[in-house]
Amino acid sequence: MYIGGRWRPANGDRRIDVIAPTTEQVVAQVPAGSALDVDDAVRAARAALPGWAATPPAGRAALLGKVRELMAARRQEITATIALELGAPPAFAAAVHTGLPIAVMGSFAALAAEYPFEEKIGNSTVFHEPVGVVGAITPWNYPLHQIVAKVAPALAAGCPVVLKPAEDTPLVAQLLTEILHEAGVPAGVFNLVTGLGPVAGQALVEHPGVDLVSFTGSTAVGRQIGATAGAAVKRVALELGGKSANVILPGADLGRAVNVGLANVFANSGQTCSAWTRILVDSERYDEAVDLAVAATAKYVPGERVGPLVNAEQRHRVRGYIRRGVEEGARIVAGGPEAPEGLATGYYVRPTVFADVRPEMTIAQEEIFGPVVVLIRYEDEEDALRIANGTVYGLAGAVWGPDEETAVAFARRMDTGQVDINGGRFNPLAPFGGYKQSGVGRELGAHGLAEYLQTKSLQF
Ligand code: NAP
Ligand code: MG
């Protein structure tokens, strides 16, 4: 545990095995923190709050800049750690799992310096003050990015943090902790408690010394955390699941839309909350889209371009969804529930494409969190919109149109937090977060920073 500026043993002696998903071997162990450890960490954070909140934004900015530099210097170690504990292919681990959080850390270093923490409204001066101690709970699918997307804005805002990372990927969390320590983050401003969700995670959510809980993970756990936080009148930010639509309008570049769409899902083996897992195509071009998807999927070879899933449970769960799709009458046109050829070891799942999928099928409604794409046919634009908006989720999406105007008009009617227009690039400064059951609150950029602030108005 890293508490109050130093590494120390956990209160108990339970440990968690870290398993490499490519080899299924135990590669490390970390301590399983208890409610006692969480209590120590929250106390340390509370003690650090006044000093950190009073540190001028320029000082907080300088420290985050130093953290970014040290992350960049240890780039290869970060990549190797994520490749090991998540099983991410090295190229993807380097470009996305490592590159993105370094960029995000840099963005919050800049924002801490620039953000208007004070504003004038009529005869009032409004101060944007840190919300207090933050309890951060993160998942394994983008293990460092999701930590940085909480820790960087919290520190930029002046909030101390207690982090409970995912049990499957604690090693990169320990590595970041070393970096924060080396950068000189003051004692208690950042604390790490590794452990299990229902033990350490829940203790953090329930702790009265935590002012804001920021959670990323499943909707089931998010719902529970939201209820607990609500009962204590505690701020909560939830970044939950998705079932995002990739809408290909008539007249759009079908080949590009299908190819980019599949890349979006198969990257990270489908373990992306914002993945466009439903491809919507008009009836006229549906068969052509199916052929294009089959051809494109052949390029995604498990063990090469596509890594394993994070653990055996996830593999079991994803294969269960693939079987369910067949039972409900959808047609597998690529992949399937069997193990990929020649890969007896490792939690691999074959990249799978379903055709003849109806919008109400389980595989078109629930988040599968694996390399599985469904192709849904629509009759006209209104039908496409109904299908696109017809799930409980609303995290992301894509629209491909014959021109930007048509695509934008459609995107404006979608109930979702982010939409990429004709292949628009991911923007790490744009607010990220969900409509409907995809969550509460936004991460990244100035909007992400604002989540960690509360206002105080002085009248003159
Ligand atoms: P999860 O259980 O929601 O895990 C997310 C984080 O919450 C982990 O750190 C977890 O700890 C912790 N947690 C679990 N139960 C908790 C509780 N009662 N109180 C406080 N914290 C708790 O997700 P998962 O089991 O890893 O994955 C299951 C499914 O969730 C996936 O198949 C996918 O559909 C979805 N998911 C979505 C995202 C996303 O980015 N939206 C990310 C991951 C998973 P442990 O590590 O010990 O479980
Ligand atoms: Mg879990």
In brief:
This protein has 460 residues and is an alpha/beta fold. The chain has helices at 35-54, 57-73, 75-86, 90-114, 143-157, 171-183, 197-206, 219-231, 254-266, 286-297, 312-327, 362-365, 381-388, 404-411, 445-450, and strands at 2-3, 6-7, 15-20, 25-31, 118-121, 124-130, 134-137, 161-164, 190-192, 212-216, 235-239, 245-248, 278-282, 331-336, 350-357, 372-378, 397-400, 420-421, 439-440, 453-459. It is built from 15 helices and 20 strands.
Helix content: 40-55%
Q: Span from first to last CA? A: 47 Å
Are any ligands bound, and if so which? NADP nicotinamide-adenine-dinucleotide phosphate, magnesium ion
> Rg to the nearest angstrom?
22 Å
CATH superfamily placement of the largest domain:
Aldehyde Dehydrogenase, Chain A, domain 1
Order of strands in the sheet with most strands: 14-15-16-13-12-17-18
Q: Averaging pLDDT over every residue, what do you get? A: 98
CATH-level-2 architecture of the largest domain: 3-Layer(aba) Sandwich
DSSP helix count? 15
Q: How would you sum up the global shape?
A: globular
Q: Give the class from helix and strand content and strand pairing.
A: alpha/beta
Uncertain spans: none
> What can be said about the biggest beta sheet?
7 strands, mixed
